[in-house]
Amino acid sequence: MAKYKIVHxxxxxxxxxxxxxxxxxxxxxxEEKIGPGLALAQGLGEDYDIVATVIxxxxxxxxxxxxxxxxxxxxxxxxxxxxxxxGPAFNAGRYGVACGTIxxxxxxxxxxxxxxxxxxxxxxxxxxxxxxxxxxxxxxxATLRKSLPKIVNLVKKMATGEEILGxxxxxxxxxxxxxxxxxxxxxxxxxxxxxxxxxxxxxxxTDLPMPKFDRVPPAEPIKDIKHAKLAVxxxxxxxxxxxxxxxxxxxxxxxxxxxxEGMEKMxxxxxxxxHGGYDRQFVLQDPNLVVPLDVLRKLEKEGEFGELLNYFGTxxxxxxxxxxxxxxxxxxxxxxxxxxxxxxLLVST
Length: 349
Hints:
The chain is an alpha/beta fold.
C-alpha cells in the first residue's frame, strides 16, 4: 500500500536556520523531516511519509505576503500531498499568521486538506480559526508533546477521509460552525439540567457558549487640561533610525521609550517606522504624521496644556497578541504614574 504523503511548513527557527537574525530567510523546500516534523513522523507511523518540509522566515513571509504565498503553494503542489500541515506556531504571532495564510491558500487553490496548531491567543488563531482546523496548543514549544496526539489523529482522519468530530472532542479551536444533530433529550430538559447544576455550583456545559469580552472602564476626564502633563504612545511603529531595540514589524513582543527632549518636531533623519501593516512611504518622509510632535509643541507653547513628557512610548499593533498589548499597557502605565502624567495621547495610523 502506498504511503499517505504529508508536506510540512515551518519557520526559520524550527527549521534550524536561526532566530530573528534569519527572519528574512526566503522560502526553501527540503525533502527531509525537520524539527517538529520528526516528532510528527514518529507519531504518524509507517503508513505516512513527510515527503517535504518548506521553510520560510517570519519576516520574509510577513513583508512579502502574496509573493511568499504563491511560491510556497507552488512548492506544495509539486508533491501532491494528501495533507498539508503548518506549524504548530504556539504563541508566535508572525509564525501563526504565516501558518494560517498558507494553509488557507493551499486549501483553496489546491483542494488539499490542511491543518495547523496555535495557542488560542495567537493573532493567527483569531484570523484563521474559522477558515481552517487549528489544533489548540499551549503557548510554547514545550507543550508540543501534549498537542501532538491531537495533530496526529486529525492528520490521519484527513488523509483517510474519516469524519472529524466537534472541537471539544478533537481538540481544535471552535470555528463558530453549527451542525445539526439529534440529541437524546429535549432542549427544555437539557436547560433544566443546566439550571439545576448551576444553582448547585456544579460544572455544566452550555449548548450555546457566549464570547467573552474584556471590558475596561474609561478613565476619568482630565480636570485641568491647561496644567496637565501629557504623554504620547503610538502603535504606529515609530522608532529611531535603525530600530536599535529590534521591535518587530508585526506581532510585537516588546515596546520602547525614546526621547523627545529638545525636539520641536520629529525628523526623518532621526526617526523611521517599522510597522508592517500600512504604506510607510509618507511616514518615512514625515514621522510627525504618526507622532505629531510639531503640533503638540505648538499647542504646548500656546498654553493649551501644561507640558509634554520628554519621551514617548512606541510599538507596532499589527498582529500583536492582546495578551502582549495588555502587558505593554501595564508597564507603560506604571512608568507614567511615576512620572505623574495626567493624560496620554494614543496615536496610530
